[in-house]
């Protein structure tokens, strides 16, 4: 009926995910030819039918352990897949869970990620491919992240009248606990990594500094990074944000490293903050006044974002393709930071690039999920009945 239905399966890290997405058969061509007029027509969009994410219990182990993760996928992925099918059935997209003839293909993450975890998703996908006689689409996890903002039905765009729809080429900043990446996206298979981190991720720096400053976190509802932002935002009575920013940055003079290099680095910043905390604890005999904690947190946040701003400036002004870029997509947990959102808008306007739209996909689509896998397959529909392909634990976005 002019539409495709894809079941996506994702198991590259520790979350067991399954999702069902549907899009017109012309979806990929429409986006590549980037006729905004056609894209604006809401019939042309991809739609998320169901998306299940089963998280692993980390309370018994510290961090992610490959063997435990793989065992956990073996136990959880079947449930995730059945749950995604059930939801699709309850919404009337498929008539039967055991033989869902409406499903056109099974998309699965082939890499990058942990080998044994990937193998779990690949095994189940191949089983379903053989059973249902439907092809597979082998998908790149990071490419799927980068293409997610096209799932526009649920993406929030900075409110501007007549905002153009997203089109290639665009820049994407992926800022999470695992990644700190600036990527140029030229097409569904054409990516250029403009900057990645040399050491720690930006999310990890937020987590460590938040903990170092003993900022309270309600783990059930928030993260250390979000708690740090909230802590900084409780401003001193009558304080002017801009003046406070300047004072804080001057006072602590935290490093913004590698100014002209194409890399991010967060370990130097993290240890510089740690040293300041130790010094303050010494001076105040363990009880750092709130005003100092807040000021240091503020300076850290600004220094962390300054690196991102400088790389965006570098690439938008120096790259030949800078002119053609009309959008900057910011995703991952750190992208929910309001200070970052404002600073990026200010940075672009300041460069005379008010024409560059900022897009912030919802966080549920930025953390690992299978909706992005099914969606990437709909956008770049390369099917195969080859069941012999194995996990690609290391797989660059540029290959
Ligand atoms: O993408 P994400 O939710 O998941 C993983 O990486 O697994 O990213 C989580 C990271 C954490 O380091 C968290 O502290 C950080 O994003 N984060 C924030 C904010 N909200 C979450 N960092 C700064 N400001 C925020 N508002
Ligand atoms: Zn991911």
Automatic annotation (TrEMBL):
Keywords annotated in UniProt: Acyltransferase, Hydrolase, Metal-binding, Protease, Transferase, tRNA processing
GO biological process, one term: mitochondrial tRNA threonylcarbamoyladenosine modification
Any GO MF annotation of the entry: metal ion binding
EC number(s) stated in the UniProt entry for this protein: 2.3.1.234
Catalyzed reactions per annotation: L-threonylcarbamoyladenylate + adenosine(37) in tRNA = N(6)-L-threonylcarbamoyladenosine(37) in tRNA + AMP + H(+)
InterPro entries: ATPase_NBD, Gcp-like_dom, KAE1/TsaD
GO cellular component, one term: mitochondrion
Gcp-like domain span: 48-374
Source domain of life: Eukaryota
Protein name from the UniProt record: N(6)-L-threonylcarbamoyladenine synthase
């Amino acid at each position: 009926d002019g539409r495709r239905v894809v079941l996506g399966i994702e198991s590259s890290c520790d979350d067991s995910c399954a999702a069902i997405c549907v899009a017109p058969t012309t979806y990929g061509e429409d986006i590549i030819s980037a006729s905004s007029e056609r894209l604006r027509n809401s019939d042309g969009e991809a739609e998320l039918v169901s998306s299940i994410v089963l998280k692993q219990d980390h309370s018994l182990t510290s961090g992610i352990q490959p063997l435990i993760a793989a065992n956990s996928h073996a136990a959880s992925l079947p449930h995730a897949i059945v749950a995604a099918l059930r939801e699709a059935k309850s919404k009337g997209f498929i008539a039967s869970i055991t033989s869902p003839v409406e499903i056109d293909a099974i998309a699965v993450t082939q890499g990058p990620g942990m080998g044994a975890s990937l193998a779990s998703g690949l095994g189940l996908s191949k089983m379903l491919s053989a059973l249902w006689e439907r092809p597979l689409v082998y998908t790149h996890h990071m490419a799927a992240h980068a293409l997610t903002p096209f799932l526009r039905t649920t993406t929030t765009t900075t409110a501007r009248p007549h905002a153009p729809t997203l089109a290639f080429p665009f820049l994407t900043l992926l800022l999470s606990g695992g990644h700190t990446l600036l990527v140029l996206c030229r097409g569904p298979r054409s990516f250029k990594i403009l900057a990645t981190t040399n050491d720690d991720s930006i999310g990890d720096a937020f987590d460590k500094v938040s903990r170092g400053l003993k900022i309270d976190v309600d783990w059930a509802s928030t993260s250390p990074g979000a708690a740090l932002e909230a802590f900084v935002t409780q401003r001193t009575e009558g304080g002017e944000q801009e003046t406070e920013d300047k004072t804080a940055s001057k006072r602590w003079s935290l490093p913004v490293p590698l100014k002209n290099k194409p890399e991010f680095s967060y370990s130097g910043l993290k240890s510089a903050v740690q040293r300041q905390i130790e010094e303050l604890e010494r001076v105040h005999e363990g009880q750092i006044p709130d005003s100092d904690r807040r000021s240091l947190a503020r300076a850290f946040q600004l220094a962390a974002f300054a690196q991102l701003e400088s790389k965006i400036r570098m690439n938008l002004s120096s790259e030949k393709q800078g002119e053609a870029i009309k959008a900057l997509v910011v995703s991952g947990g750190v992208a929910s930071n309001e200070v970052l959102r404002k600073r990026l808008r200010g940075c672009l306007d300041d460069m005379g690039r008010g024409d560059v739209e900022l897009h912030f996909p919802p966080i549920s689509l930025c953390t690992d999920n299978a909706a992005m896998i099914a969606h990437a397959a709909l956008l770049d529909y390369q099917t195969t009945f080859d069941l012999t392909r194995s996990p690609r634990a290391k797989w660059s976005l540029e290959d």
